[in-house]
Design brief:
The protein has 165 residues and is mainly alpha-helical. Helix content is 38%, strand content 7%. Strands 1-2 form a two-stranded parallel ribbon.
Length: 165
């Protein structure tokens, strides 16, 4: 757990105040309730954890914009609490030959969650300037529900096999 925090502790937390979590959540998902958006899903205690590690802030240069003509594939998940789709758009905006896709309903590890993302990556590696992204338009995020659904214990292992790493 220390390695991902070291990067976040030095490059993100010093530049992104905790007070902005809800604001950014509302921008990304304006119809979701505040109670869902007030904590970044994968980063619930990021600010507090980073304070404990006491990692110094990185140089502001790590946040300088990259400008490049190199073909670049930018993939984000619509439910990504670490690198939101807005960051993907921002990153792609100065990469002249970039392809930017958002996988609906996916979180941070998009490629593990989406065969479509895997197909786009394979296509990008074959044709970096014009990858086939057609599968993205066929995807939809799962509906949001605040109701609790009980999963029968005897199906739990079966349901989780697709998520094994």
């Amino acid at each position: 757990m220390a390695w991902p925090l070291a990067s976040s502790d030095s490059e993100w937390v010093p530049f992104e105040p905790e007070s902005q979590i809800l604001t950014q959540g509302l921008l990304a998902f304006p119809t979701y309730p505040d109670s869902v958006l007030s904590q970044a899903p994968q980063l619930a205690f990021m600010t507090q954890d980073c304070a404990i590690w006491n990692v110094p802030a990185a140089s502001p240069s790590v946040r300088q914009v990259t400008i490049s003509p190199v073909p670049t594939l930018v993939i984000t998940g619509s439910f990504d609490g670490r690198t939101s789709p807005q960051w993907g758009l921002y990153a792609a905006s100065t990469l002249q030959n970039s392809t930017n896709i958002v996988i609906p309903g996916a979180g941070h590890w998009v490629t593990a969650q989406s065969t479509c993302a895997q197909d786009v990556i394979a296509s990008f590696l074959s044709n970096p300037l014009v990858p086939d992204t057609s599968c993205v338009s066929e995807l939809t995020p799962p509906p949001f529900s605040s109701s609790f659904t009980m999963v029968p214990p005897d199906t739990l292992d079966e349901d989780l096999t697709d998520f094994a790493i």
